[in-house]
């Protein structure tokens, strides 16, 4: 019975629904929409199924809408002309008011022009080329992620792993070329460069792809960004696997056009792509998406029964959401059938029929651009004529599938979490925000991003010859057997040592840049050869300068930096009558005198409080006594124990001061026999004496900047020219000083140590380094090797070999007189003397005041008790005499004790 009731209710509802539908259909208006897809491709088949489900779902949710989409599907058969012909047919014969598609960017170029001409919105969920900009084609809407949206995520990956060079590999059509400008700009922002662009024709054969891959193998760069269709990408990676380019050390990054279809590729192709990274559009999980996926797979089997099981991709979701956006816009725009304008026949069209111009176009376009909702693909927003995509997945192809290793968003950069609320900083420079990657060759070690190809050409190393200092760099003739050029010198040995310390083999060959054949050539010209890519690296005594760094990259310096002067030394004895005052600074002299007077006063006061008869003399004699106390110690003069303690500490300070004074004075009288004739540049400028520099050096411009007259600046060939000009002196046609870089000066002094010295540095420089091409990946590795060399004993041994032992020449470095002794040099003894004197005086005053306080009140009381009695003078005198005798005996007793203490102290002092 219950079953019959359910059946009756079901039939009633079905009948009611049918009646309501008939009533509704009588009121609805048809909105004709053209759909142009490549129905023979995977994307076309997936989108076709999604579109049909989308129409059903939309009107099931909105049964009361007064418009109904009427779809007219056309197959463009992957041909641009066929796609344009299909659009013309839809515009002429069906008066479509919107077109969904076409599928390829090359097709969309012409179709979008038609839509713009006839004011019919063209909405494509697959054409990603930036050339289809809404500014030039306002009626073209990209309901997909534009190529420019993903380049920032690709740059973040490259920045994270520190790669400096990237080679883009792209299909040579509108789709492929459209990403290049944005990719170049964003890579420049992270200091990465594109040394080569590999464009592959979309109809390229296996042999042509293989030939291009072999060309890429001969290059140093190992980081490749692949941007092409799924069909061409499948062939490309299959060939890359065959020739061994999917092995350890290679880096492959695929764009979303290929990564979004990774699940639809043949398993053998996916396996060939093992180790590749990819940028894939992010789709948030939802219950609606799960339900749709189940229904989609069921419908897909019915729509394509003869095809292998298709995989739902992001393009299927975008096509679904696009239908919803167009259906909402059709309802919102309130279109009517009468709003069309007939135009005359167009001569350029193959059809002779006229094409109607939609008057509803602007309203429909406006409604589409204002559509915003939460779709199956995520938040669907077509503002500015493009789908606003804010997040991508970063995938790693492993086995026959892929796994997500991280996410990228415009707000938070790279992170491991897809929830944007958990991240509040941009992650650029660390790999901790990505899960472990399985790189090509099943390696977990991050590839360096470049390699020296074993079958490629050797590194071209330019070396300069004909320089003034062959000990720094010198080149020999070619070897008769091997034809290789041999080089020697300090710069060469450090370079070769750095190459040996690299963690990989770096074959190279020397090429001579001869400056002797053309004297007008300079080191700027030598460095410029690297900029012109005639050399990969320039090795020599090359100063790191700002103007050169604009064109090349320098390694870390391998020598000491700075510019100094070579000047003769003079032999003269200082005959100053007041030289005996120089060992101590004026402050030290003043402090010593003050401490001397203070110590004398303290001892005098201590003896005064101790009733020493030597301090009861007239004032002049007391002053003499005070000075005597400060200089001598005798039993008869100083009696108190505290006075002797102060005196011993003071005498200890005098002994230290005397020894230091004697040593300093002796040093001044001997060392000052060798003094530089010139001590600073200002002295040369004031006297107007001529100076010399190395011929062809940039030092000349520096001297002119410092204020030297051009007539006073003379070029010389080092080192003999330096020696001759300095020997003559400025009065005999020579110069007063030679100004050059410190490494050259040290080399000169190693050969001419006697009679010359170095003054300075007077100017800062960055030192000598090696020049490489801008963005060269070798810069960091060679710099690290140089840092390892200069931070150990190796550099000392190399310098001893080519320059000699610098310790053997006392003139290497600035010669200056011995410094005077300052107050800080004797802070310890001075503080000890002051503290001892002050403490002794304070203690003595406390004892003296306490004794007077005890004696004073007793005398006052006796005076008040004794009555004034004149007749008792004799008795009073007797009492006073008795009291005096008692006090005298007590004093003798105390003095006796003091004498015994004094005797002990004298004996101790004598031993000290």
Automatic annotation (TrEMBL):
CDD domains: GluR_Plant, PBP1_GABAb_receptor_plant. May form heteromers. This is Glutamate receptor. The chain crosses the membrane at residues 587-606, 641-661, 826-849. Residues 461-805 form the Ionotropic glutamate receptor C-terminal domain. It is found in: Membrane. Belongs to the glutamate-gated ion channel (TC 1.A.10.1) family. Disulfide bonds join 753-809. One of its GO terms (biological process) is monoatomic ion transmembrane transport. Glutamate-gated receptor that probably acts as a non-selective cation channel. May be involved in light-signal transduction and calcium homeostasis via the regulation of calcium influx into cells. SUPFAM superfamilies: Periplasmic binding protein-like I, Periplasmic binding protein-like II.
């Amino acid at each position: 019975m219950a079953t019959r009731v359910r059946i009756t209710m079901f039939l009633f509802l079905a009948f009611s629904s049918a009646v309501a539908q008939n009533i509704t259909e009588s009121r609805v208006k048809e909105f004709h929409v053209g759909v142009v897809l490549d129905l023979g491709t995977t994307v076309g088949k997936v989108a076709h199924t999604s579109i049909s489900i989308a129409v059903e779902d939309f009107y099931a949710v909105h049964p009361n809408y007064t418009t109904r989409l009427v779809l007219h599907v056309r197959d463009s058969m992957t041909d641009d002309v066929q796609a344009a012909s299909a659009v013309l047919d839809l515009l002429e014969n069906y008066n479509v008011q919107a077109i969904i598609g076409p599928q390829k960017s090359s097709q969309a170029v012409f179709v979008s022009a038609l839509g713009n001409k006839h004011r019919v919105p063209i909405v494509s969920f697959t054409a990603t080329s930036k050339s289809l900009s809404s500014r030039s084609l306002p009626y073209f809407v990209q309901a997909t992620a534009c190529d420019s949206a993903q380049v920032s995520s690709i740059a973040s990956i490259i920045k994270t792993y520190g790669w400096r060079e990237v080679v883009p590999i792209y299909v040579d059509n509108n789709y492929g070329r459209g990403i290049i400008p944005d990719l170049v700009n964003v890579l420049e922002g992270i200091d990465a460069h594109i040394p080569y662009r590999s464009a592959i024709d979309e109809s390229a054969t296996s042999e042509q792809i293989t030939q291009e891959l072999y060309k890429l193998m001969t290059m140093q760069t190992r980081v490749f960004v692949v941007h092409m269709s799924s069909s061409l990408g499948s062939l490309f990676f299959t060939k890359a696997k065959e020739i061994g380019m999917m092995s350890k050390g290679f880096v492959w990054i695929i764009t979303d056009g290929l990564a979004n279809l990774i699940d639809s590729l043949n398993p053998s192709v996916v396996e060939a792509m093992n180790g590749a990274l990819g940028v894939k559009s992010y789709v948030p999980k939802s219950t609606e998406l799960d339900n749709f996926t189940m229904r989609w797979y069921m419908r897909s089997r019915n729509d394509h029964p003869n095809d292998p099981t298709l995989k739902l991709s992001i393009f299927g979701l975008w096509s679904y959401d696009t239908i919803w956006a167009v259906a909402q816009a059709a309802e919102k725009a309130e279109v009517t059938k009468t709003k069309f304008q007939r135009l005359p026949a167009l001569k350029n069209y193959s059809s002779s029929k006229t094409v109607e111009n939609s008057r509803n176009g602007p309203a429909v376009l406006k409604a589409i651009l204002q559509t915003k909702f939460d779709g199956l693909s995520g938040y669907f927003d077509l503002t500015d004529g493009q789908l606003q995509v804010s997040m991508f997945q970063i995938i790693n192809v492993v086995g026959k599938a892929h796994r997500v290793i991280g996410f990228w968003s415009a707000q938070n950069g790279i992170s491991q979490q897809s929830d944007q609320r958990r991240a509040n900083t941009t992650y650029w420079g660390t790999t901790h925000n990505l899960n472990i990657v399985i790189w090509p060759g099943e390696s977990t070690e991050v590839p360096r991003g470049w390699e020296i190809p074993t079958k490629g050409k050797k590194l071209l190393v330019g070396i300069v010859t004909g320089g003034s200092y062959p000990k720094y760099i010198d080149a020999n003739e070619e070897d008769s057997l091997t034809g290789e050029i041999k080089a020697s010198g300090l710069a060469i040995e450090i370079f070769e040592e750095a190459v040996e310390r690299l963690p990989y083999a770096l074959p190279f060959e020397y090429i001579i840049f001869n400056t002797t054949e053309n004297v007008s050539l300079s080191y700027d010209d030598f460095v410029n050869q690297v900029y012109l890519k005639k050399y990969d690296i320039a090795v020599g005594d090359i100063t790191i300068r700002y103007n050169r760094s604009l064109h090349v990259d320098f390694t870390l310096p391998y020598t000491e930096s700075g510019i100094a002067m070579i000047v003769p030394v003079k032999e003269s004895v200082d005959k100053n009558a007041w030289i005996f005052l120089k060992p101590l600074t004026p402050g030290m002299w003043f402090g010593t005198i003050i401490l001397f007077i203070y110590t004398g006063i303290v001892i005098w006061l201590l003896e005064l409080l101790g009733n020493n008869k030597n301090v009861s003399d007239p004032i002049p004699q007391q002053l003499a006594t005070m000075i005597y106390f400060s200089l001598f110690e005798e039993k008869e003069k100083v009696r108190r124990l505290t006075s002797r303690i102060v005196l011993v500490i003071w005498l200890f300070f005098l002994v230290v001061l005397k020894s230091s004074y004697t040593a300093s004075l002796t040093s001044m009288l001997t060392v000052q026999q060798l003094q530089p004739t010139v001590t600073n540049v200002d002295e040369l400028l004031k006297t107007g004496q001529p100076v010399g520099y190395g011929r062809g050096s940039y030092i000349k411009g520096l001297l002119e900047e410092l204020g030297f007259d051009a007539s006073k600046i003379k070029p010389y060939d080092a080192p003999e020219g330096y020696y001759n000009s300095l020997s003559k002196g400025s009065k005999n046609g020579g110069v007063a000083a030679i100004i050059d870089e410190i490494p050259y000066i040290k080399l000169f002094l190693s050969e001419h140590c006697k009679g010359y010295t170095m003054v300075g540095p007077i100017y800062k420089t960055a030192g000598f380094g090696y020049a490489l091409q801008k963005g060269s990946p070798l810069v960091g590795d060679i710099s690290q090797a140089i840092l390892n060399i200069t931070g150990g004993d190796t550099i000392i041994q190399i310098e001893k070999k080519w320059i000699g032992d610098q310790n053997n020449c006392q003139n290497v470095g600035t010669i200056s007189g011995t410094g005077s002794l300052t107050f800080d040099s004797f802070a310890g003894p001075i503080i000890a003397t002051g503290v001892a004197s002050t403490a002794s005086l304070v203690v003595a005053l406390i004892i003296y005041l306490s004794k007077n306080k005890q004696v004073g009140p007793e005398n006052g009381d006796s005076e008040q008790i004794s009555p004034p009695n004149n007749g008792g003078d004799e008795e009073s005198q007797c009492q006073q005499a008795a009291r005096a005798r008692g006090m005298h005996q007590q004093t003798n007793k105390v003095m006796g004790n003091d004498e015994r203490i004094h005797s002990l102290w004298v004996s101790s002092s004598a031993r000290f």
